[in-house]
Design goal:
The chain is α+β, with helices and mostly antiparallel strands. It has helices at about 1-20, 30-35, 40-50, 70-100, 140-150, 150-160, 175-190, 230-250, and strands at about 55-60, 65, 100-110, 110-120, 135, 190-195, 200-210, 215-225.
Length: about 260
């Protein structure tokens, strides 16, 4: 373990060293090894690996190194997540106040959905799932609505990757059932599930879109199923769609929110 942490430390030192100071920074392997008091062979080996994965790029003419596009990609992902939370928070608070139920904000991470923020219901009997909770994208309204609005090829790829014989849901879910659900969700503009992730719970999920016109997450209302009558579901889904559209617009989305 010490060997691995030592390598990680050296990698972080290299990336820190190449961090632009106002202007783009390029350094040779010799300059990097000297600055970090590192054997030139070690510096070269680490730079080769970083280049292979796009974290560092090498100028073909000068052979000097600079930060690569992969780091920018991860930076933008973190920025998007931070921006989403910041923009969504007041709308989440307003939605929770109006519905008196718990409101969650979810995003996709690979084949899973993850809660990144929540506003608790003011009522004694309420749903309170932990921030950071992860579930496969086809389980629960907050996740399924994201899956429904993904590009068809990505959606199919994710559905093909799931193990349908080992579904961590409270009720049986099949590929055929989920396929039908995704079609219905796209038509109605929201997802609604009961007793899938937590017993006695109903959730309503609505998609949030980014400036790139892609689904970036979901806004969700959840509470005890006994409070979610047909009338309440109609009212809450309408409110959630309104606030999700406002969040999408704040993020720069200019298309139709429910395609």
């Amino acid at each position: 373990m010490n060997g691995l942490s030592g390598v990680i430390n050296k990698v972080v030192q290299i990336l820190d060293l190449l961090l632009p100071q106002g202007t783009e920074k390029e350094m040779s392997v010799t300059e990097i090894s000297k600055a970090l008091n590192m054997p030139i062979q070690s510096a070269h080996r680490l730079l080769s690996s970083l280049t292979e994965h796009g974290f560092v790029s090498q100028n073909e003419k000068t052979k000097r190194y600079k930060l690569g596009l992969s780091l920018m990609k991860y930076g933008f992902l973190m920025w998007d997540s931070l921006m989403l939370r910041t923009i969504a928070r007041p709308f989440m608070e307003e939605l929770s106040k109006r519905t008196k139920e718990t409101v969650y904000l979810s995003v996709r991470e690979n084949a899973e959905g993850i809660y990144i923020d929540s506003v608790d219901s003011p009522q004694v009997l309420k749903i309170s799932e932990p921030i950071g909770l992860r579930l496969p994208l086809f389980i629960g309204a907050s996740n399924r609505v994201i899956l429904a609005f993904l590009k068809p090829e990505l959606q199919k790829s994710l559905l093909d990757s799931f193990d349908w014989d080992d579904v961590p849901s409270l009720k049986p879910l099949s590929r055929a059932y989920i396929d039908q659900e995704l079609t219905a969700i796209k038509q109605q503009g929201y997802a609604m599930t009961t007793n899938e992730a937590t017993e006695g719970t109903t959730g309503i999920g609505v998609p949030i879109f980014s400036y790139e016109n892609t689904v970036i997450g979901s806004l969700n209302v959840a509470g005890p199923s006994i409070r979610f009558s047909e009338e309440s579901i109609g009212k809450y889904s309408s409110m959630a769609r309104k606030y999700a559209a406002l969040i999408s617009n704040e993020l720069g989305y200019r298309g139709r929110n429910l395609q």
